[in-house]
Design brief:
By secondary structure, the chain is an alpha/beta fold. Among the domains are: 86 residues, Arginyl tRNA synthetase N-terminal domain (Gyrase A, domain 2), CATH 3.30.1360.70; 92 residues, no CATH class; 186 residues, Isoleucyl-tRNA Synthetase, Domain 1 (Orthogonal Bundle), CATH 1.10.730. The protein contains 24 helices and 13 strands. Strands 1-2-4-3 form a four-stranded antiparallel β-sheet. A four-stranded parallel β-sheet has the order 6-5-10-11, with helices on both faces. A three-stranded antiparallel β-sheet has the order 7-8-9. Helix 7 crosses helix 9 and helix 23 packs antiparallel against helix 24. The chain is globular. 42% of the residues are buried. The structure holds arginine. The site of arginine has 9 residues, from helix 14 and strand 10.
């Protein structure tokens, strides 16, 4: 990877000037404008400030120490002390066509210092309808996991299901009082969710009786009451089937699914331990962790003896450290849980838990086109399966209307599945995760713009060249591998496309750095656009020479592979025709 390579060369060059080089070499970037070379290092200015010296002079000194003859044609100081680098033809050709050899990894070596991550994502609340917020967590968590793994990290995924909360008190109370046995037999999930909504409505209307009953049923469940446990065991599988059907459609699976119920037996021990160590204390009958200067304590036991979401999360940390010994734990939930995780991480610190980095990878809300939290037409909750159905059926309409009868209806449906689901996933991932975004089928399925459909179409279009030209890609790849054919980059647009393809690995590293898959979608969109420019300006099948034709075909192949790999990492499938 070019950036990685440049960083290591610059590290060598500035090693004698400062001890901590990493912050400085992080300032090397691909240039925004070709006039400033291919890459630009903005190292000299901050370094000059630190050393109280002249930036241009420092830049000159860095250049004189820098060894990049094998990478660059020219290295120049510009303006206030920028260092502009122009990559050499031979380096580019070498790099890009080496990618062909190892097709799975795109010529990208795994990082040297791999870390162990636990990614805690999705975490729907069982027996409550799964909503778009959980979809967001699911889609983001999966993309982040795939990117980390692609770069060689060890990732354990764990779905921290909400399978033990007060919603079960509501379900149990509703089950006893409002369940329609016939509907339950035919459509258990729908009936349970109807019952849940009845109880929810009563509680929202301030029905104290119902609220008390719900608390009591929850407490009985937690105390091991056998009737309540029986209902819990009965409804769990129905709900899980529904949740799993959504994961299946999204193509997602987890290494572990250890829900809240799993930790229940250890909660009393956690509270006792925190009390004993003086980390938590009693106040008004409740038990919590109190922090200096902050009003709200982190509650771990309520007045009535009930444990909380946070108690379980403390127990979960202890379990994960014991069982997996991770370097980093990521939690994917929306903004509203910011305080919870801040307090959880502070508590971990008070518990002297060191060597683990905790990160709340938070995200914004999904809004409807009216700007309010997104709801489906049918009512107060979003059935995620319904949402996926709708995307697929709208995609089918589009695929059918674009089809000039070369695709069978079976094929159209298969394509629509990937375009519809891919559309939902891409729409989410292409946003800055911290912003709210508006859920719009029209936008997400548009064939133009930064959408999955556009990217999938771009991929299919590149692939179609090989069919059209009757080209055997594998044969072409083998001829490069064996050295029989030596591709050469000649035209400017070829170079431009080659450089863009080579940024793939770096774009993943940027995306991983702060857990932002949108940096990968931005890259892929840029790649598709650069490819369009290349395709307009460089005839491929009708190139003037065979050598140019094969070189360009190889660039097409690499573009297709990069688009495919990138979309797959995001959790999106490509289609060969569309
Ligand atoms: N069930 C939670 C919710 O729906 C998400 C769980 C997140 N993970 C965690 N370890 N707290 O909000």
């Amino acid at each position: 990877m070019i950036l990685e390579l440049l960083k290591s060369r610059f590290t060598d060059a500035i090693n004698d000037l400062v001890d901590d080089t990493s912050d400085y070499v992080d300032l090397i970037r691909p240039s925004q404008d070709i006039r400033f070379g291919d890459y630009q290092a903005n190292i000299a200015m901050p370094l000059a400030k630190r050393l109280s010296r002249n930036p241009r002079e420092i830049a000159g000194e860095i250049i004189s120490r820098l060894r990049v003859d094998d990478i660059c044609d020219s290295v120049e100081v510009a303006g206030a002390g920028f260092i502009n680098l122009v990559l050499s033809e031979s380096f580019l050709s070498n790099q890009i066509f080496r990618n062909n050899v190892d097709s799975e990894k795109m010529g990208i070596d795994p990082i040297k210092k791999s870390k162990k991550f636990i990614v805690d994502y999705s975490g729907p609340n069982v027996a409550k309808p799964m909503h778009v917020g959980h979809l967001r967590s699911t889609v983001l968590g999966n993309a982040i996991t795939n990117m980390l793994r692609f770069r060689g990290h060890n990732v354990i995924t764990d779905n921290h299901l909400g399978d033990w909360g007060t919603q079960f008190g509501m379900i149990i109370f509703g089950y006893r009082n409002y369940l329609d046995a016939d509907s339950y037999r035919v459509q258990p999930v729908a009936e349970l969710s109807r019952v849940y909504r009845i109880v929810r409505a009563k509680m929202d209307n301030g029905d104290k009786d119902v609220a008390e009953n719900v608390l009591a049923e929850t407490a009985k469940l937690h105390d091991g009451n056998s009737d309540n446990l029986q209902i819990w065991r009965e409804v769990m599988p129905y709900s899980m089937d529904e949740i799993n059907s959504i994961y299946k459609r999204l193509g997602i699976s987890f290494d572990y699914t250890l829900g809240e119920s799993f930790y229940h037996p250890s909660l009393s021990g956690v509270v006792e331990d925190l009390l004993k160590r003086g980390i938590a204390r009693e106040s008004d009958g409740a038990i919590g962790v109190f922090f200096d200067g902050s009003e709200t304590p982190f509650l771990i036991r309520k007045k009535d003896g009930a444990y909380l979401y946070g108690t379980t999360d403390v127990a979960t940390i202890l379990y994960r450290i014991r069982e997996f010994n991770p370097d980093t734990i990521l939690y994917l939930t929306d903004f509203r849980q910011s305080l919870h995780f801040e307090q959880l991480f502070k508590t971990a610190k008070l518990m002297n838990i060191t060597g683990v980095e905790f990160s709340h990878v938070k995200f914004g809300a999904v809004l409807g086109e009216d700007g309010k939290p997104f709801k489906t037409r049918s009512g107060d909750t979003v059935g995620l399966n319904g949402l996926l159905d709708e995307a697929e059926s709208r995609a089918l309409e589009i695929v059918r209307s674009n089809n000039r009868s070369e695709l069978s209806d079976e094929e159209c449906k298969e394509i629509a599945k990937n375009v519809g689901i891919g559309g939902i996933i891409y729409a989410d991932l292409s946003q800055n995760r911290e912003s709210d975004y508006v859920f719009s089928y029209d936008k997400m399925l548009a064939m133009n713009g930064n959408t999955a459909a556009y990217m999938q179409y771009a991929y299919a279009r590149v692939r179609s060249i090989f069919t059209k030209g009757n080209i055997d890609v594998n044969d072409l790849r083998n001829r490069v591998k064996s050295g029989e054919f030596k591709p050469e980059l000649k035209a400017d647009t070829e170079r431009m496309l080659a450089k863009e393809i080579l940024k793939f690995g770096d774009s993943i590293d940027f995306a991983i750095k702060d857990y932002r898959p949108n940096l990968l979608t931005t890259y892929l969109f840029e790649l598709a656009n650069k490819y369009s420019t290349f395709f307009e300006q460089c005839p491929v099948l009708r190139a003037e020479t065979d050598s140019a034709k094969f070189t360009r075909l190889l660039l097409c192949d690499l573009t297709a592979k990069t688009l495919n790999k990138g979309l797959n990492l995001l959790g999106i499938k490509t289609v060969e025709r569309m």
